[in-house]
TrEMBL record:
Sorted UniProt keywords: Calcium, Disulfide bond, Glycoprotein, Hydrolase, Metal-binding, Signal
Name this protein carries in UniProt: Paraoxonase
Co-factor note (free text): Binds 2 calcium ions per subunit.
GO molecular function annotation: acyl-L-homoserine-lactone lactonohydrolase activity; aryldialkylphosphatase activity; arylesterase activity; calcium ion binding; phospholipid binding; protein homodimerization activity
Cofactor(s) listed in the protein's UniProt record: Ca(2+)
Family assignment from sequence similarity: Belongs to the paraoxonase family.
Organism: Pongo abelii (Sumatran orangutan)
Active site per the UniProt annotation: 115 (proton acceptor)
Glycosylation sites: 253, 270, 324
Any one of the GO BP annotations: lactone catabolic process
GO cellular component, one term: spherical high-density lipoprotein particle
Amino acid sequence: MAKLISLTLLGMGLALFRNHQSSYQTRLNALREVQPIELPNCNLVKGIETGSEDLEILPNGLAFISSGLKYPGIKSFNPNSPGKILLMDLNEEDPTVLELGITGSKFDLSSFNPHGISTFTDEDNAMYLLVVNHPDAKSTVELFKFQEEEKSLLHLKTIRHKLLPNLNDIVAVGPEHFYATNDHYFLDSYLRSWEVYLGLAWSYVVYYSPSEVRVVAEGFDFANGINISPDGKYVYIAELLAHKIHVYEKHANWTLTPLKSLDFNTLVDNISVDPETGDLWVGCHPNGMKIFFYDSENPPASEVLRIQNILTEEPKVTQVYAENGTVLQGSTVASVYKGKLLIGTVFHKALYCEL
């Protein structure tokens, strides 16, 4: 009888394991291969070899790029060097990148590990750059002031909070006010791996201000990219392993109300919003298995989606670019400026194309 019970429990355990394994592979889109969609006149950006995980383009054509991310379980081509913020002027005929110097006596450059970024320009046209940072595998938000003439960043403040433990992306709504995604619930690496494998969907979004910090949305299977509509009325959140983008209505008290969700056949990463049209441009991972289990002989592909009229009953989704990893590995972000498309990656290069 005892053996029968043991065999029954073993069988139940194996069945449960197979179900979770199947779900895990589905959430990673493990079987998908991309059909290439090329764009005319694409060039790799000189000076970017170790990632361009997030980027933001200002209305004047200056692009800020975070480079050199070291993220647990993800490939890095330069694991022993600190990350950096790059500047690119898209008004130039053949734009190149410049590493921005960072000043400020209390900032530790040696452990700089930038992830998501966002800008905010105040009434006096002072421009602030907020950067998710992972020094020594922790999570902070670094507040910088951009000094355009010196082409440098002045470090003003480091923000830490117990509700900001596993930061991924950020969207600024003031110099020290932002929404941010936590892509995991647990801090411990072992528990984090089980959280992802089991699909617990415990990650969440936080609103931060100097006077108030609170969770405003939760229940995500790896909350990733976040951005806001040009009129400031709606917040967009990418749920990586559920293959969804959620639309939330933003209220005057900074709370969020879910409005709608869109489903995709790809892992959606960072979201850029065209300030003129309101279109969403999304860097995607067609096959997440290739991102989390890197193989140089079978590298992760890249994909860019454009979403038009997202607030209507019939949004238009267009696959703008797709490539199997021979040119660009692991796209995370895409943004447009004057008919040009800039695509960034988690640990690889960056691509600049004509649309």
